[in-house]
Amino acid sequence: MLTACAKTPDWDYDKSANFSNVKSFAWLPNASLTKDTTHYQISPLMEQRVQKAVNATLTTQGLQQVAIEQADVLINYHASVDSKIEIDTFTTGYNARWDNWGFGIQNQTHTQNYEVGTLVIDVIDRGTNQLIWRGAKEGRLKKNQTPEQRTLAIEKTVATILANFPPK
Question: Where's the DUF4136 domain (predicted)?
Answer without folding.
Answer: 11-167
